[in-house]
Amino acid sequence: MSVTDVTVVIVGAGHSGLAMSHHLRVRGIEHVVLERGKIANSWSEERWDSLRLLTPNWQNRLPGFAYEGSDPDGFMTNKEVVGFIDAYAKAIDAPVVTGTRVQQVTAHEGRYAVSTNSGTWQCRALVMASGAHNLPAIPETAARLPEGVQSISAFEYKRPADIPDGGTLVVGASATGLQLAAELNKAGRQVTLAVGEHVRMPRTYRGRDIQHWMEVTGRLDEGLAEADDIVRVRNVPSPQLVGTPDRSTLDLNRLTDAGVELVGRFAGYNDGNAQFSGSLKNVCALADLKLGRLLGQIDEWIDSHDPQSQPPDARPDATRVPDSPRLILNLAKENVRSVLWATGYRPDYSWLDLPVLDRKGRLKHTGGFVDDAPGLYALGLTFLRRRSSSFIHGADADAGDIADHIADWLNSAG
Question: pLDDT for 131-190, tens place per residue?
């Protein structure tokens, strides 16, 4: 196959990779963007049908590009996200090569060789912008579920028809688990939701979207220096938010009112029984405490910066927890025919033939600069350089920082 020389290779043509392309272009750095499928492939192929962004339209912006529609407070559907990112690629004339799957990356004499299904690119710097949601993070227990119980990840789930009739156990109560539990419940399924650590948030507060307050108070700009334990911060669950036309709040109380049964964190499966922790009351109380603290901090900021703003809302009711939540669920007796794993995702680095992963398979990096691998960078990971890294608009600042480092490194390397 052919071998092509280029200064920088970007892997992934989602919003992060395209933001990186913009910043390299304005610095005059030659590059190519390799994409395994089509632009915004993960949004079009690896999300469930009803998914909407958790961030309002006004917040979805990329360098030199912003939402210009008629519904700034609405939430994009999957199809709209794909259209937004595709329009951005066209606007910046990004040098994207689609249908090109990276199979291996090796290093030799100060350069990286990026082998793909359609040839090899040799480059001085490589930016991995393939994202943090390539593979579902499913516990090993899933392989022990009995015959007749479907095990499906949120990565694979598309719609309620994908789930067999009967009860469903949804494992995980962050943004994804909450939304899927609500969708299945609305479709008439009997849903049990296993609840672990979670972050509770209202959709709106004091007349504005919660993301408005997270942004103007500077919370989303908090960087690595403000994180007391970056490993812990990067593992904090995504907030319990949902994007709907009516801008409603979805929380555990609302699910309980709809008939969803809450149980504790999934602890394992044995002899026909799903087992749960007895921590449900404690984890819900902790989430309520943190919610109250967040809203209090927002109130303090408003008192200092905008005292004429709408007065504080009443605090949300505390999470209602059953007096004695069940610790064991016999799948057969309760006619549970499926387990849906909303237990998070992880990046796929199987194509990296480089000593840059720790013993748990995690990339060793400092703010996107990969440790002990000059010229190798990561982009699009949770809290990469700041709290906003997880959101579309956060790609701009992260990509700009990395582009500056690439320019300096290329100049110093000669």
Answer: 877 888 899 888 889 989 999 999 899 999 999 999 999 999 999 999 999 999 999 999
Domains recognised in the chain with CATH numbers: 3-134+347-413 (3.50.50.60), 136-341 (3.50.50.60)
Diameter over CA atoms, the chain: 69
3-state secondary structure of 22: helix
Q: 353-381: per-residue pLDDT in tens?
A: 999 999 988 999 999 999 999 999 999 99
C-alpha distances in angstroms, 401 versus 14, 137, 359, 364, 396? Answer: 18, 29, 28, 18, 9
Q: How many whole angstroms separate alpha carbon 340 and alpha carbon 145?
A: 12
- Are the C-beta atoms of residues 200 and 291 closer than 8 Å to each other? yes
* Type of residue found at 351: W
Residue 36 pLDDT class (50, 70, 90 cuts): very high
Residue 157 tokens read as 């789930």
The partner residues of 262 in beta bridges, in order of sequence, read 193
The pTM of the full predicted model, rounded to 2 decimals, is: 0.94
Which secondary-structure segment (H or E) carries 33? strand 31-34
